[in-house]
Specification:
seven-stranded mixed sheet; binds S-adenosylmethionine; two-stranded antiparallel sheet; 7 helices; globular; alpha/beta; Rossmann fold; Methyltransf_16; 230 residues; methyltransferase activity
């Protein structure tokens, strides 16, 4: 223990329980840290994306999944608990956030999950040396319009290296003026909106959490334009 108290962090573990109509259920515990950084808290988008993963859990087994801007990492951790090979990432400039990604893995006894610093829009050795990917995740990564293109540049780079991969992302509507459409067009990518009711996420309470509340959250799947595929 640090006698000055300077290194002590205040952590609260939140439990999310995913269920379906069968008897199957899965509880994931993730740490929230009292800290001004956005990545230290679970956002409504994360619960919705995790619910989408839960409803597609059979597809995740043995797939390689990378989460961008993972923060507390609820979706990535759920994917790992469902049998995916997972890499979690957040900005290389937020070491405390990366430390919290590792804490999320520890809380779920996930020893094989890799945690990396990947900053959107930057080419780094860790980005270039990533293994083959099947699914890229991003929960609430479109929250600051000046970063939208950096997020999509990283996604476009990864999809060009993995042309069959998909970017599964949730977006919280904060302003009717924001749009990623022109950027998708510029980077030659397609977007399909997935209706929340199609995977049981059209509820204000999800996985035992009231986080979704009345927020307007959208689920999208982004891919390369098919004419780029061979
Ligand atoms: C609104 S939080 C969402 C966190 C988490 N995905 C969730 O939904 O609970 C945005 C996340 O993006 C990360 N982030 C912000 N700027 C970034 C950048 N330039 N590169 C990579 N990650 C970044 C933050 O550290 C934070 O974890």
């Amino acid at each position: 223990m640090d006698p000055t108290g300077a290194n002590e962090v205040s952590i609260a573990y939140k439990v999310f329980t995913f269920e379906d109509n069968s008897a199957e259920c899965l509880s994931v515990s993730v740490p929230e840290v009292l800290d001004p950084q956005y990545g230290m808290y679970v956002w409504p988008c994360a619960v919705v994306l995790a619910q989408f993963l839960w409803s597609h859990r059979e597809e995740l087994k043995d797939h390689t999944v990378l989460e961008l801007g993972a923060g507390v990492s609820l979706p990535g951790v759920l994917a790992a608990r469902c049998g995916a090979k997972v890499l979690l990432s957040d900005s290389a400039r937020t070491p405390l956030c990366l430390e919290n990604c590792r804490r999320s893995c520890d809380a779920n006894r996930l020893r094989d999950v890799v945690v990396l610093g990947l900053t959107w829009g930057e080419v780094s050795p860790d980005l270039v040396l990533l293994p083959k990917l099947d699914i890229i995740l991003g929960s609430d990564v479109f929250y600051e319009p000046r970063d939208f293109e950096d997020v999509l540049v990283t996604v476009a780079f990864l999809l060009r290296k993995n042309p069959r991969a998909q970017f599964w992302t949730t977006y919280q509507e904060r302003s009717a003026d924001w749009s990623i459409e022109p950027l998708l067009c510029r980077w030659n990518m397609n977007c399909v909106d997935i209706q929340l009711e199609s995977f049981g996420a059209d509820k204000s309470e999800l996985a035992g959490s009231t986080l979704p509340g009345s927020h307007s959250v959208h689920m999208m799947i982004i891919t390369l334009n098919t004419r780029d595929l061979d």
